[in-house]
Structures are given as structure tokens and as C-alpha cells.
Write a structure and sequence with these properties.
Blueprint: H1 2-12, H2 16-41, H3 46-58, H4 72-82, H5 88-111, H6 116-128, H7 142-161, H8 170-180, H9 188-201, H10 206-234, H11 240-249, H12 265-268, H13 270-274, E1 276-277, H14 287-290, E2 296-297, H15 299-328, H16 332-337, H17 348-354, H18 359-377, H19 383-403, H20 410-435, H21 448-469, H22 476-501, H23 509-521, E3 530-532, H24 535-542, E4 547-548, H25 557-566, E5 571-574, E6 586-591, E7 596-600
Parallel strand pairs: 3-4, 3-5
Antiparallel strand pairs: 1-2, 5-7, 6-7
Length: about 600
């Protein structure tokens, strides 16, 4: 233990920049590896073709599809297109660069609460989660959005707690997160909690208010060009409001493969999201890597969650024990009659109200009512009410605990507030995504930073428990740090294993081959009107505007063929092996047993 203690102390005493260099180097090398894999397997998800085509639109090389979608990643990709790199790798590279920033941002966020070593290990855990890896550099928006979200929360806490120069970047980072994926707008709840508690704890200085105002202006300046783009092309400067309305109303088609009414879906699958692997050895089982709920849970996931749970129980029980001691010692009257000094209130009237002898019982009563209402609201159909009830429950609980001095001392207040900010982050996305009828595993990526944070917190407390049980309290930092690092490295090693033998060489290779077949059959294809049931993909590969043509949208093949005729379609490209489509006026002219090309007679 002595030799290991020396090693640990040397590691822990390494300055911040040493961990930063090591982590950034790791992130770059690992991302390059993921990019190599991604370029080899190509597009893994249908929506990625939309972003590729929208990037062509921003570069002035195409028309784009569903241009109301989050625009930032396609726009950044279009800059590479303009430089001559018109390929899928450009989109992967943009998301890869943001992933590197996200890994480092995760370290910085954790470092606000934990030691350098624990924060480093936490960043490795974030990188290794099964729900993150397949999407990290895939061109999808989920991971880039959560990376910008990490930076938004970090800059907000760091700016208000340590260096107020960081305040300038809060709202620009929030704008980037929102423009990457609109659901990032839900970060408003943890940010609002931070600003409210900071106001009552310390108050905002004139310098902080000025910096916040400038930050808001900078965020708006980032946002405005895209608002102008939407208005010019859609006649609606805020198309995301329509999507927000749809999510609140929570309507879904019964034909949607993601339909899943179970509100506990994400909670049940957390072990899969931490670490899982395909059920068989086939390369075709790559789908279970993209959707971890269909895979087999890795035992390391259960071990991490059990140890995390023990630590979090210890953490919560510590707070409850202090609360019980307060009640047992009958200190309520003393606490409600004096000004504890735990809050710096901005005006005397507010100060008098907060220190009224009846305010604490009122707070406790409100929390009880809010919890009951929150539980009832979970049976509803809209997540907005549950979100607000959750937010005010945590906010009032924070002030109640501060009131009775359970949370006191500058450092304790700071870390407890960070804990609650991350808790609100987690619950905000858990509630909203759990209410939605459509559930997709990758949506859980929005919660992964919060999950990793509480893993590090729980494992730290578990390490302290082990030290206490083994009468090695002077080694508790060593034990907790070593525990987290060992589990992080084990998780990372297990995450890499499926990539060695499970990833296919192409996921949508048949679509690319179908496009080549079209080019060979008719070199003048760009002068024709083409429809396809995979129109975004064929638009990308053929570099033209391929129209939507989905036979299942029509009652009969005759109706479908009539639509093609009315649209003056020369070709229809079927990509799902439909070799028996009998369309009046159209005949098969080429096929490779998966992709069939039909030409108008």
C-alpha cells in the first residue's frame, strides 16, 4: 500500500495541464481510430443522409431535405465542402472534432467537483459508454449536442464560481448546443437553477451582470443568421417551435418502429447504455451496438452501477442523518429565529421574509405537496408539468437545507449546488424523453454526462466506505481514486472489444452500389426525374434531387404508379429488395437482387 500510495500521490499531484495534455492526446488518438472505422462502414443511420444533403445546400451544391432540422452541423460540414472535400468523411470529421472537445469538457466539468485523477477517469467513462461510441463520429447530432451542452454547464458554473471571464461564453455555447440539436434548449432548467441560487447566495455583481448581458448578445448574434435562413427559406424564423409543440402534445404514429409507451424504458436499460455487447459474433449484429437495449449487458456495467448505488445511498443518507440530528436536537426554533448568514439577500424586505420563523415549515409543506403532485403528474401525457414540479421541488429543497444549516460552508455549498444542477440536468431529459411515445436508445446520450457525474460521485463515496470498513481512513483518497480509475480502464477495454470483430464493412453499401448501377445504366440520369424509397440516400450518392416515393404510402401499386406518372418520373429506384412491384407503365431495367431500377415505358 505504501508504494501504491506514493504512485497515487505522484499522479494526484500532477498539475492540471499534465492531465489536460494526456486526455487531449488520448481523445485525438481514439477519435482518429473511430473515424477510420466510421469511414469504413459509412453511414449507419437514415437521418445522416439528411445532414449530408443539407450540408450540400449550405454549400450551394444541392437542395437539401427537411431544412427545418438543426442546422449547425450541416453548416460546419458545408465549409469543408466549399474547400473541396465533398464526402461523408467531412461530416464525420466535424462530429469527431466536437467529440474531442466534449471529452475534454467532461473532464473540466468533473474537475469542478472532483480531483484531477477522478475527473480524468470520469472522462474515460464518458468516452466508453456503449450508447455513446457508435454515434460519436457517425454524423448524427446527439453526441455533438451533448458535447456543447457539457461546455455550457461547465462555463456557467466555472464563470460564476471561479473566473467570471468565462461568463462571456455561456450563451454562445448554449446557442451552439441548441443549433446542434433543438432538445438542448431544455438546459434552461439547470441554468435557471444556477442563476437563481447564485442570486440568493451571493448576488450578482455589476461586472457579472455586464458579462451576462454581453454573453446573451453574443449568443443572439450566433443565432440570428440561422433565424434569417429559416425565414428566407421557410417563411418561419422559428421552425423549432413547431417541433417543440409536437413533442409537448406527444402524438406518434402506430407505424413508427420506435413507438414505446413504457415510461420506465430508459431507466430499465441504463445497464445496457453503460456497457453492452452484441448477442452473437455476426458482423450483421452491428445493430445491437447502435441500439444497446438489444444487446447483452456486460457484467462490468452491473458492477459499476452497484458500487455507484452504494456510494449514492451513503451520500444521501449523510444528508438525511444531518436532517434527523437537527430535528432530534429540536433546533427548529433556534434556526427560524436567527439569521444564519447562509444567504446573502439582496433587499431587506426579502431578507426579512426568508428569515421569518414560519418560512421553514412552509418550505417543508411545499416540498411535500410538490412531490405528491409530481408523482401524480407522471401519469399524464405532457412532460412540461412534471418538469416544472421537479424543478421547484429541488429549488425549494435546496433553500430549506440551507436554511437549517445542513448545507453550510463555502466549499460544501458550492459542491452541493453543482450536484443539484447535474441532478436537474439528468431529470429534465429523463422526464421529457420518458414521456415521449417514441423512444430511441441514442436519446439517452443527453443524460450520459449526468450519469457519469453521479458515477464518479457514487464511486468516490464507495471508496470512502471501503476505507472506513477496512480501518484505512488515511488511504480513502487512494482507494476511491484507484477504484474509479480501474473501473474506467476496464470499461474502456470492454468497449473496444466489439469494434474488433463486430463492425461491418458497409452498413448501407447496397445503396451506394445502387447509385453506381443507376449511373452505369443511364449516364444522363441527372436530366431525368427520379423517385426512390430511400430518397435522401440516393440524393446524396447521385448528387441530385431524388424525390420521395414510398409504395407503402399508397393503397395499391396502381395508385403508386399513377403518382409517378403524374410527377413525370422516368425512374423509380426500389432499395429494399422489392423485386415484384407490378407498376403499370414501368418495367424493371436493372437490379442487383437488393436494388431494383424501374423505368417508365
Amino acid at each position: 500500500m505504501i508504494s501504491f500510495r506514493k504512485i497515487y500521490n505522484k499522479m494526484e499531484k500532477r498539475p492540471f495541464w499534465v492531465y489536460s495534455i494526456i486526455l487531449i492526446a488520448f481523445a485525438i488518438i481514439f477519435t482518429i481510430y473511430l473515424l477510420e472505422v466510421q469511414i469504413r462502414i459509412g453511414v449507419i443511420y437514415w437521418d445522416v443522409y439528411l445532414y449530408l444533403n443539407n450540408a450540400l445546400m449550405f454549400a450551394g451544391l444541392g437542395d437539401g431535405y427537411k431544412i427545418y432540422l438543426s442546422p449547425l452541423i450541416p453548416f460546419l460540414t458545408s465549409l469543408l465542402y466549399r474547400a473541396g472535400f465533398v464526402c461523408q468523411a467531412s461530416l464525420y470529421s466535424v462530429t469527431g472534432l466536437i467529440f474531442i472537445l466534449g471529452i475534454y469538457g467532461m473532464y473540466l466539468l468533473l474537475n469542478l467537483r472532483f480531483t484531477h485523477l477522478k475527473s480524468f477517469a470520469g472522462a474515460i467513462i464518458f468516452t466508453s459508454c456503449s450508447v455513446v461510441l457508435p454515434w460519436a463520429v457517425s454524423g448524427a447530432l446527439d453526441v455533438p449536442a451533448v458535447c456543447f451542452s457539457i461546455w455550457t454547464i461547465f462555463l456557467a458554473v466555472y464563470g460564476l464560481e471561479k473566473n467570471n471571464k468565462a461568463i462571456y461564453f455561456i450563451f454562445p455555447a448554449a446557442a451552439l448546443a441548441f443549433l446542434t440539436r433543438y432538445t438542448s434548449g431544455l438546459l434552461i432548467l439547470p441554468l435557471l437553477f444556477l442563476f437563481i441560487t447564485h442570486y440568493f447566495d451571493k448576488g450578482f455583481t455589476k461586472s457579472e451582470i455586464k458579462k451576462i448581458a454581453i454573453s446573451i448578445v453574443l449568443g443572439i448574434l450566433i443565432f440570428l443568421p440561422f433565424v434569417g435562413f429559416f425565414y428566407a427559406n421557410l417563411g418561419n424564423p422559428f421552425p423549432f417551435l413547431d417541433q417543440f409543440g409536437v413533442s409537448v402534445e406527444n402524438h406518434a404514429s402506430t407505424r413508427d418502429p420506435g413507438l414505446m409507451p413504457d415510461k420506465a424504458y430508459y431507466l430499465k436499460n441504463i445497464p445496457n447504455y453503460i456497457s453492452s455487447y452484441p448477442l452473437n459474433n455476426s458482423r450483421l449484429d452491428f445493430g445491437s451496438m447502435m441500439t444497446p437495449n438489444t444487446g447483452q449487458v456486460n457484467p462490468i456495467s452491473y458492477l459499476i452501477l452497484i458500487l455507484t448505488g452504494l456510494g449514492l445511498i451513503s451520500y444521501v443518507s449523510g444528508i438525511l442523518n444531518k436532517l434527523w440530528a437537527f430535528l432530534k436536537n429540536n433546533c427548529l426554533d433556534r434556526a427560524t429565529k436567527k439569521n444564519t448568514g447562509s444567504m446573502r439577500n439582496i433587499n431587506k424586505k426579502l431578507d426579512s421574509w426568508l428569515n421569518n420563523r414560519y418560512i421553514l415549515p412552509i418550505m417543508v409543506f411545499l416540498v411535500e405537496i410538490l412531490i405528491i403532485l409530481f408523482i401524480i403528474s407522471l401519469g399524464g401525457n405532457s412532460y412540461l408539468i412534471s418538469e416544472l414540479l421537479m424543478f421547484f421541488t429541488i429549488l425549494i429543497t435546496y433553500f430549506a437545507l440551507r436554511k437549517i444549516e445542513i448545507i453550510k460552508g463555502r466549499e460544501i455549498k458550492k459542491v452541493f449546488r453543482i450536484d443539484l444542477i447535474i441532478l436537474i440536468w439528468f431529470l429534465t431529459y429523463l422526464i421529457s424523453h420518458s414521456f415521449l411515445s417514441i423512444k430511441v436508445d441514442r436519446y439517452f446520450i443527453t443524460m450520459i454526462p449526468a450519469v457519469v457525474y453521479f458515477m464518479v460521485l457514487g464511486l468516490s463515496n464507495t471508496g470512502n466506505l471501503i476505507a472506513r470498513l477496512t480501518n484505512k481512513l488515511d488511504h480513502k483518497k487512494i482507494i476511491s481514486g484507484a477504484l474509479i480509475l480501474i473501473l474506467a480502464l476496464t470499461l474502456f477495454a470492454s468497449a473496444l472489444q466489439p469494434y474488433e470483430d463486430k463492425v461491418p464493412y458497409k452498413v448501407y453499401g447496397f445503396l451506394e452500389e445502387g447509385a453506381k448501377m443507376m449511373k452505369t445504366y443511364d449516364p444522363q440520369y441527372k436530366e431525368k426525374v427520379i423517385f426512390s424509397d430511400q430518397w435522401p440516400a440516393l440524393s446524396w450518392y447521385l448528387k441530385m434531387d431524388v424525390q420521395r416515393g414510398y409504395p407503402l404510402d399508397f393503397k395499391t401499386s396502381d395508385e403508386f404508379s399513377q403518382m409517378l406518372k403524374n410527377s413525370n418520373a422516368t425512374y423509380f429506384i426500389s432499395t429494399n429488395g422489392r423485386g415484384s412491384l407490378n407498376m403499370e407503365g414501368y418495367s424493371k431495367v436493372a437490379n442487383d437482387k437488393i436494388v431494383y431500377i424501374y423505368k417508365r415505358n
